[in-house]
Amino acid sequence: MPPTLTARLVLAASLPFFLAACGGLASGDSGLFKRGGRDGVVTADEFESRQAADEKRAALDALNDDGRRNRGTIWDLFSNSKDPNTTVEVNKYLWQASLEVLNFLPIESVDPFTGVIVTGYGTPPGGGRAYRATIYVQDPALDARSLKVSLQTKGGGAVSADTLRAVEDAILTRARQLRIRDSKL
């Protein structure tokens, strides 16, 4: 017999023994697809070992090819680092409304390709507290989920949820007004 045929016969003959060693062949369960423990119940020890293995795998995935850890910045959240040829589509009404509603804030940077507007500190008309804002328009839809606004006071504190909601509502209302105006043309 040729060596490849002999090897195949030996492998075919030994396969049931290997499957029996995996456990439970006599009960009809080969043990290959068991979730763990008895009756598919995962014990605490098995759960902890799986969790440790998952964390180790995630840590290895976070390393560069040369073994150094990947370090990202907060701006990586706003960039599409997967494909450099893909751009974020920005809703023009949300973009324009953000600039109009927050026109009392000096603009530090504007990037229409990523949808980010960063302002400096400014005081609203009739107000006494200085604010700065970061606006992120992340979708072409005229939708509340497309708009992310972050406000900060000059003292370094976050603003109240009511103030943030009022600014977001003002931007969304103005964006809808701009869209209605354009549809009448």
CATH topology of the largest domain: Alpha-D-Glucose-1,6-Bisphosphate, Chain A, domain 4
Biggest β-sheet, characterized?
4 strands, antiparallel
Total strand count, please?
A: 4
Low-confidence parts lasting 5 or more residues at pLDDT below 50? 24-37
H and E string: HHHEEEEH
What number is the mean pLDDT?
75
Identify the quaternary structure here: single chain
Rg value: 29 Å
> How are the strands of the largest sheet arranged?
1-2-3-4
Domain module tally: 2
N-end to C-end Cα span: 86 Å
Structural class: alpha+beta
General form = elongated
Query: How many helical elements?
Result: 4
What's the CATH architecture name of the largest domain? 2-Layer Sandwich
CATH class label of the largest domain: Alpha Beta
In which range does the helix fraction lie? 25-40%
How much of the polypeptide forms β-strand, as a percent range? 5-15%
